[in-house]
Structures are given as C-alpha cells and as structure tokens.
Design goal:
Length: 484
C-alpha cells in the first residue's frame, strides 16, 4: 500500500510563515530575485504587494501613470522651446555680426558690392570712400572697378530686421545716409593714378631734357627740326631753362612734359589753344574731335552724383538734380550722351562756340586765344569738353523736359514765381512743391501803336504817323533831336 503524505501540522505552518516573511525582507533589501525553494513554489505562496498601492483600483494606477507621462512630455516641450528661442537669438546675433559694414562697423544700409572681390558695404560709405580719393576696395585694398547694389543682401537685411527690429540703424543715421546715396545706382571706383617715374638724380634741373622726338631713330618716325641737346652728353650746347622754352617745343597740357609742337602725334584744343603730346598718357594727352572726346571724370551717372559742380549748375537745387538722375537711369543715358547732344545743339546755333569763349569759359591753361571767336572749332580736350557739358547741362534738361515724355511724378508742380533766381531752392520742401527749371514766357501784351516821324526834305517839315506793331515792350520811337 502506497505511503500517504503527512498532513501539515500547526507548528509547521508557523515556521512556513516565518520563512516567507524573512524571504520578503531579504528580497526587499537586496532588490534581487532569489529563487524560491521547491516547497514554496509548490505551496503557491506570493509576496504581498506594497502598502502604497493597497486599496487602489487598476484604472487609478493607469491614470497616475498617464499623468506622469504627460508631465514628463510637457517638461520636454518647454525645454525644446527654450532651446529654439536661444538658437534664434544666437542666429540673429551671428547674422548681425556677419552683415556689418567694413567702414562704419554697423549693420549695412542699402548694401552695395564691390567687384570683383565681392566685399559689401553701405552705399553711403562707398560714396564717401570714393569722394575722399579711394581707388580700391576698402576691405582688401585690391584693384576694383565697379560697385553695384546687392539685392540678395538687401533681402537678407529686411528679413533680419523683421525678426529683430532693434538691430535697425537709427532714423538720423538713415537720413544722413540717404542724403549721400539714394540707392539702386551703380558706381565706378576711379583707377589709381599711374606711378611717377623714378627720379634721376643725375639730371640737372637747370637744363631742358630732349623730348621723345628729339632722339634720333625714335619709334615715332619723326624727328624734331631743332632737337634739344642732351645735357648729360653735350653740356656745352644744353638749353638752359632760364632762357624759356626751347624753339619748336612746348609743354603738354596733360602730362606737362616737353613736346614737339609740329610732331604728327601733337594735337591742339581749338577752344583753350592748349597743346597735347599724344604720347605719354593715351586717351588723355590728346585733343580729339568734338563728338569723339571723353569727359574728364564723368563716365557714368555715379560720377554725376559725386560731382559738386553738377549741383551748382542747378543753383543747389538737389531735388531737380535727383529728378534728372532718375530720368537718366530710366532712359539708360550716360553723361557722354548728354555731352554729344549739347555739342550738336551748339553747332546748330549761328555763333556756335562764340558765346562760351566770350564768357572766358576756356581761359584756364590757354596759351594763345584765337583772334576770331567765331572761327570753326573741331578739336577739344577733355577738360574743355567737361566745361561745355557743365555749361549746357541745365539747358539740356529744359529741352529734354519739353519733349513731354520725361514728366513723371514731378509733372504737376507749380512754377515758382521767382524761377531760377529763387533763393529757397535749397529748401527741400519748397523745391518739391515748386518747379524752378523752366523758360520764362513773356505775357501777351495788346497790339501797340508804333509812332514814326518821317522828315520831308523838300518842305523841311516832319510827318508823324503810326502803325500796328506786335512789340511786346511797346517801344515808341524817339523823335529826332530837332523835333525834341
């Protein structure tokens, strides 16, 4: 007969409970899983849950976990937002630093870019740089030629200022910059002057040096009839400067070196009578035909903006000059184009250049003026061409406006009663309200009676008569002295 299992007695149950309690304490203190003895697994004894969760329903526990998860997620969102804000602030500061002007160290205003080095600056800073004699890029000092507005940089600046308006330049700074550079106009950086030749300390300053045509077998295929002796080789026959200019020679009106007056390369300006060698500096040491000559320092509209003489032509009326520059930009006109139209207008007049010569417009640097001011003029130098341009610029603008298609936003201004003699033209408000550039039209006077006195030689008497006249001044002929 098989052995029957021994029933559990009371003392054994107590021992079992004590064993379970000790196991629970050990598990709770060591936080490690201890495999239960076979007897415990067989009996199905389980560790009691913590007192913290006693009496709580499953849905309550689930809700607590969801709340904890929500709090953790909310904390993560706040941290991410703070990080994004810090990143945006850092981006604004970095962009502001990268977009600083290399001249004024402020955020660039109306940016322009120098070619070919691609450095950018405020438009007003570049204008001042050129006015002060700058001939290269202010940043890298490399040779540069063109300065043009940068639309991509302007878009970046506008975007930056929308995000950080505090970075904008002050209103006074913007106003001062607008007075110097209006924006949207390309400029040209003048080329640096050619370096002067190395001085020859062996040459005596007391004697004249031979001109390029005095040397035998020179590359110009023409030799001076009276060459100047070289003081280094023939001091006995050298020409002393105290004796004046050597025969057959003169000084070039541009480079000021001695030149042969009769050489094929020599030319003479027929307005100021100045001679040019045609050798030292190409395109400058020459008097060219009237329509082929270039202006001195006025190649594009940017040069007109920087030229103070242009504003003086309009009596300091900057508003009218701005209107003219806007028209030139819209029509693509250059100063040389205006100069040619002025020359054609002068040539169409009966006296041509005589009024200009009578005003002593070309006296500076003149060697000898022609005895007849109305003589034909076909050659002109760069400086005289510039004088003609400035002399006729205002009247050209009047004629251009009379064509009708140049009237834009300034078409409806009233004419100022004082016209070009107005002393308030420099007042921006007054200049914008009134037009000062126009040709005065005399009022229509009624038909006047012209009194005439005709002497009668046979009778020795005078016959007084009258006739209709359209003389706007209403002049009455004066009686002869005998009648008076």
């Amino acid at each position: 007969m098989a052995d029957q299992p021994t029933p559990l007695n009371q003392p054994d149950s107590q021992n079992q409970d004590q064993y379970s309690s000790s196991m629970e304490a050990e598990v709770s203190t060591t936080s490690t899983v201890v495999p239960a003895p076979e007897s415990i697994a067989t009996l199905g004894v389980k560790r009691r849950a913590s007192s913290t969760f006693e009496g709580m329903q499953d849905d309550c526990r689930k809700r607590m976990k969801e709340d904890e998860r929500a709090v953790l997620e909310g904390t993560g969102v706040d941290s991410s937002s703070s990080s994004s804000s810090a990143t945006a602030v850092g981006l604004v500061e970095d962009l502001s630093e990268e977009l600083q002007c290399g001249c004024c160290s402020g955020l660039i205003y109306k940016p322009v870019m120098v070619s070919p080095c691609q450095h950018f600056f405020c438009g007003s800073c570049i204008v001042l740089w050129i006015r002060n004699g700058g001939t290269n890029c202010p940043a890298c000092r490399s040779e540069s030629a063109i300065v043009s507005p940068s639309r991509p940089l302007q878009i970046i600046i506008d975007t930056l200022l929308r995000a950080a308006p505090r970075k904008a330049r002050s209103e006074r700074e913007r106003q001062q910059a607008d007075d110097i550079y209006r924006g949207g106009i390309s400029m040209r950086i003048p080329t640096p002057r050619e370096a002067s030749p190395e001085p020859n300390i062996n040459i005596s300053a007391e004697y004249a040096r031979p001109c390029p045509h005095c040397l035998p077998n020179n590359p110009y295929r023409w030799t001076c009839p009276q060459p100047i002796p070289d003081p280094n080789t023939d001091i006995d026959h050298a020409w002393h400067l105290e004796d004046g200019t050597p025969p057959g020679h003169g000084h070039c009106g541009n480079c000021e070196v001695l030149m042969a007056l009769q050489a094929p390369t020599s030319t003479k300006c027929e307005l100021c009578q100045t001679m040019f060698c045609g050798i030292a500096v190409p395109h400058r040491c020459i008097a060219a035909p009237l329509l082929a000559q270039h202006l001195h320092g006025m190649e594009d509209i940017g040069d007109l903006i920087q030229c103070q003489d242009v504003y003086e032509c309009f009596n300091g009326n900057t508003v009218e000059v701005d209107f003219m520059l806007d028209h030139l930009t819209a029509q693509g006109l250059t100063p040389r184009h205006i100069y040619r139209e002025i020359i054609n207008h002068i040539k169409a007049q009966p006296r041509q250049f005589a009024p200009l010569i009578e005003q002593d417009l070309f006296v500076d640097g003149a060697l000898e003026l022609e005895p007849h001011p109305e003589a034909s003029r076909e050659k002109i130098c760069r400086r005289c061409a510039t004088e003609v341009f400035l002399w006729g610029l205002k009247e050209w603008w009047i004629r251009e406006r009379q064509k009708g298609f140049v009237e834009g936003r300034f078409a409806h201004r009233k004419d100022c009663p004082e016209g070009a003699d107005c002393t308030r033209q420099k007042d921006l408000g007054h200049a914008k309200e009134f037009n000062h550039i126009f040709i005065r039209v005399l009022p229509n006077y009624p038909t006047m009676k012209r009194t005439t006195v005709v002497p009668d030689s046979e009778t020795g008497t005078y016959t007084v008569g009258s006739s209709a006249s359209d003389d706007v001044n209403g002049i009455v002929d004066t009686l002869p002295s005998e009648v008076a």
